[in-house]
Amino acid sequence: MNNFFTTLTFLFITYFSFSQSYESKIDSIVSLQYSANEPGITILVAKDGKAIYKKALGKSNLELNIPIEVNSVFQIGSITKQFTAVSILMLAEQGKLNIEDKIGKYIPEYIEVGRDITIHHLLNHTSGIKNKTPLSEKNYTSRMDRSPKELITYFKDEPLAFMPGEKFKYSNAGYILLGQIIETISKQSYGQFIQENIFDKIGMTSSYCGDMKQVIPNRSTGYIIKQNEFVKSDYMNLSLAYSAGAILSTTEDLLKWQNALLQNTLLKESSIKQAMTPTLLNSGKKIPYGYGFRFSRLGNSPVVAHTGSTKGFTSIALFLPQENMYITVLTNCNCKNANNVAKQVAELFVTSPDVNKVSAVTKTIEQEKKSIAVSAEILNNYTGTYEVKPNVNLTIGLDNTNQLYLLAPGQTKKVELFVETQNHFFVKIVDAEITFNKNETNNVISLTMNQSGRKIIAKKN
């Protein structure tokens, strides 16, 4: 089913992106992957620090039939690392630590094994500390509370994977150590420090440091897909994620966070620049990570972002500095790709979007392929509904001009199909083809959709 929707996303988004306002374009991107009666999504798009689009779609809780709202609270997973990194830099600005300090100064377990590891190495994932935490173990019991010390005990005796600064390798364990450093210096719990120094200071009133026992208004339930059905995700005690991934928040609160960073509310401009700049290995090679921020490009536009994932939740916060756009997506199911949604939305605004490349390909397709005439009687044989999976059908229809079209589940926008041979059709808007399959008695029994080598077969009802 996921392949099906991914393919249809290409079909529809490319077709409608140039004819709709940005609002309806984003609506299309979201609705092609999420529906009102499934676990869903909340998305916010901001320009120059102000929200220009914010919507929610889907269910926050399937059992209680509660819809997701724009103020629904989600686990944000590893976006938490941004808060941890900024907290460390706050302490550095206060003169309470130096990012070049050896971590053994604050964590006794690492006086020896960590004698060459600095706080800088933890911040940019170059410490050599393996990404081994209780959550990395499939059979680990995740219901029990664990203190930071207990989490550290789990991996403290592991040998380093490489010498500090030699490689870049993502490590949740490294960010757990940063949380312990924050607690050691501040004499507060990690949650208390974040609450008092960040949430309260910038008005993030719907954000929390993870506690599964706490009653949190508008908290969403997490889901996964098992045997093609939605089921609740396994319980995960957020003490295990700690400073690497335990924060819950909303899209609106994350915009407050982003604005606070850019307006130097929490840190000096020099510290923010340090966090949002790619760092270097010992060799001088640049890596795509600063302090809690990842770096990439979309077309000609730089991207500063971080993704997150916990059991039943996925998230992404994406910033386009050149366009001064901020996009954040939160979902309560691991079953779909929130990152692709954010990227597709970002492509609507970047200076040189990748979709231009798609348009160039589309023009070539239109020029090379020619449609032939086929009688309405033949075309009528192809009309009907086709089952992709139980209760998920696409429709092939014929309008009053004898134009065959495809209609995706839950959509109102039709995609025209053009005849290449009697049972083989193509789409002009992207490089996609549909073949109608017949049995021995010449009856249509299914269709095969092929796009860029990816095939989807749907049985005719």
TrEMBL record:
**InterPro entries hit by this protein:** AmpC-like, Beta-lactam-related, Beta-lactam/transpept-like, Peptidase_S12_Pab87-rel_C
**Xref: SUPFAM superfamilies:** beta-lactamase/transpeptidase-like (SSF56601)
Q: Where is the Peptidase S12 Pab87-related C-terminal domain?
A: 369-450
- Per the record, a Pfam family? DUF3471
Q: For the Beta-lactamase-related domain, which residue ranges apply? A: 37-337
Under PANTHER family, the record lists:
BETA-LACTAMASE-RELATED DOMAIN-CONTAINING PROTEIN, D-ALANYL-D-ALANINE-CARBOXYPEPTIDASE/ENDOPEPTIDASE AMPH
This chain belongs to which protein, by name?
Answer: CubicO group peptidase, beta-lactamase class C family
